[in-house]
Amino acid sequence: MLGRRLLLFTGKGGVGKTTMVASVAMHAASLGLRPLIVEMGHRASMRSVFGTDDIGFEPREVVRGVHAMTMDTDRALVDYMMQHVRSRRLARGIVNNQVLERLFKAMPAVGEIATLNKLRQLEAETTGGQTRRWAPILVDLDATGHALMFLELRRTVEHLMGAGPMRHLIESTAEMIADPKVSQLSLVTTPDELPVTETIALHGRLASGRTVAFGPILVNRVPTSGLMPDAVADFDALEEAARSAGDDEVLADVAFGRLALVRQARARHQIDRLRTAIDLPVVELPELPPDRLGRTELGRLGAGVMGATFGGGA
Amino acid sequence: MNSSQGLGSLIATKSLIVCVGPGGVGKTTIAAAVALAGAKLGRRTVVLTVDPARRLADALGLPGLDDEIRSVPLGKVVGERGGLLDAAMVDTAQSYASLIRRIAPDEGTRERIVNNRVYQAVTRSMARSHAYIAMERLYDAMELRDYELVVLDTPPARNALDILDAPEQLARFLDTRFVEWFLPGDGPKGLRDRLLATGGRVAKSMLALITGQKLLDEIVEFLDAFATLREGFLVRAARTAEILRAPTTSYTLVSSASPASADDAAWLLHDLERRTVPIAAVVFNQSYVPLDPRRPERRGTPPAVELSTEQSARLRRGSAAASQTLDVLRRLRREAADHNARLQRIVEGMAAELPEGCARIQAPRFDDEIRDLPGLLRLANLLIGE
């Protein structure tokens, strides 16, 4: 997978995308690559994972070998204008132009177009010679709605844009994203109803349009108690004994165990739904403690995700 | 921190409760529970959600949640106080369609608008369009219908506060002078207008250069078709802006206890503060795992299994397998207690940052069990401290 330059991640809010992205980046860095994490919008998630100060528009090293930046639409827009007017002052002037400013603030596609352009710039950046400055670029696409807007931009603006630089940018970026040798989208979910439903819907919509190549589905926070479904017989025996002995604590143990089994069964059911609906490999990742993960743990998680996700000599 | 500082008084007195928070923390479920609590307290309540949650529709006893406002069959659940609960899920495209149908003065205008490509692009894309339409739905619920309490669910963290910006952005977009830059009309009057008009010309030629003339033509067409509706939009936007800032409106932050949502929540709090929007309550959802499902409030560490007592010995005599299972179960519960202690540290860290007088409620991780009205009512009761 490490030949792929653009790794996109999406999934419903709260499924643990950011941790996933961070862990893959850590692993890439440990292999001597030059990963850049691009976080969309002003969320604090990446900062939280790495325990650093603000991550801004300029890429900065957040841990050894891993750079990160936050996409800032206004700044990206200035960069975009720069390419067309070649004077930063004029570009700023245009962005600060009251008419355009209002239009940009009200027109939803503009921010996405500027963002695409910035991604193109980052992707093409070199360190002087032939070496790309950033590879892979990992994009944390935030919620699935945002991902759709982003990945379907070509379709959204298809009838809206006449020939021109903007149209050209959208077309060429869409091609880059659709090229399976360059880009891959990982759908991240938890084994819960709503995230799974959203994942299935998103996949269906994108797969029909051949918008992007998919990596395996990453199912985060799969409950693992170690209890097998046949433990129910033991539960019954324990419950009976506890009742006659009046041991309330054991009754609580059994109630807890029953609930754990129910949760496991529900998670299993959701994972089965995914497997039935989507013909892609599924990678299950266990629930981790609620603290901030240390670098070692992140690296290990990343190795797990990458090994399972992109292994096989790809 | 406990439910003695519950949401009861907010739910009983406010006209609008806006729920904001990071994604994946059960915000929509909390919004529904807040609304149910409102109905239970005897108020005519509606909840406007953003998530098409099948489970929530089931929990509310509805065939589905969609754009249309439906009445939740409460039966005996809320008692005799005469409250009612309605619910809808705001679907951006659907809501726009019915809005335009409602306000267009004639069929021709309606056709022109819905067939305009700028309009289609705007309503098809997510974040900002959602905020505009949420604003319209809010106006509709607050001003045109007979509700005493409206509970508004918002998109996750990053876009949660878009609704606060939406009225002004829309007003600015539909501003007469702005529209005149694009539409032919009377020439500008004063110096300022002339200067702005120059800006408009520069903008127009710049835009044409980048996007092509086509988009520009569509924008002009859109604004032209929209001209007759503009006044109404501006009036509603102004009123919604007032509602969002009214003292009868209250903002509730919903967060879970994971470090990532804690940081997102902190960002939201900061952003609300920057806008001088006071936060009235924080719900720490999924902030502990009940150690005894029969008594969800219990959080203390269970004792280790005592091998020496006669009771345990008798339990263990039953079968070796059951005895091993008991060890596994007790270990799981002790691990859960440890997990809870870590979550509690995160919650307390967040709580320390909250302003004085802000209500704090902790809810256990039981929302995956909320599959019917009694389940949702359990959460509602917890929120109002009953």
List the helices and strands and how they pair.
The complex is a heterodimer of chains A (314) and B (386).
Chain A: E1 6-10, H1 17-30, E2 36-40, H2 45-50, E3 60-63, E4 66-71, H3 73-85, H4 88-96, H5 98-106, H6 108-124, E5 137-140, H7 144-151, H8 153-157, H9 165-178, E6 183-189, H10 193-208, E7 217-222, H11 231-245, H12 248-277, E8 282-286, H13 295-310
Parallel strand pairs in A: 1-5, 1-6, 2-4, 2-5, 6-7, 7-8
Antiparallel strand pairs in A: 3-4
Helix pairs in contact in A: 1-13, 3-4, 3-6, 6-9, 10-12, 11-12
Chain B: H1 8-13, E1 16-20, H2 27-40, E2 44-49, H3 54-59, E3 70-71, E4 84-89, H4 92-103, H5 107-114, H6 117-124, H7 127-144, E5 149-153, H8 157-160, H9 162-173, H10 176-182, H11 191-211, H12 213-245, E6 249-255, H13 259-274, E7 279-284, H14 310-318, H15 320-351, E8 359-362, H16 373-383
Parallel strand pairs in B: 1-5, 1-6, 2-4, 2-5, 6-7, 7-8
Antiparallel strand pairs in B: 3-4
Number of strands of chain A: 8
Q: How is the CATH topology of chain A named?
A: Rossmann fold
So, CATH architecture of chain B? 3-Layer(aba) Sandwich
Side by side, the strands of the main sheet of chain B go: 3-4-2-5-1-6-7-8
Report the CATH C-level class of chain A: Alpha Beta
Helix amount of chain B? 55-70%
> What is the helix tally of chain A?
13
Shape, per Cα inertia axes of chain B: elongated
- Residue stretches of chain A low in confidence (pLDDT < 50, at least 5 long) are 310-314
For the record, the CATH class of chain B is Alpha Beta
Structural class of chain B: alpha/beta
How widely separated are the two ends of chain A?
A: 5 Å
Which CATH architecture of chain A is right?
A: 3-Layer(aba) Sandwich
Radius of gyration of chain B: 26 Å
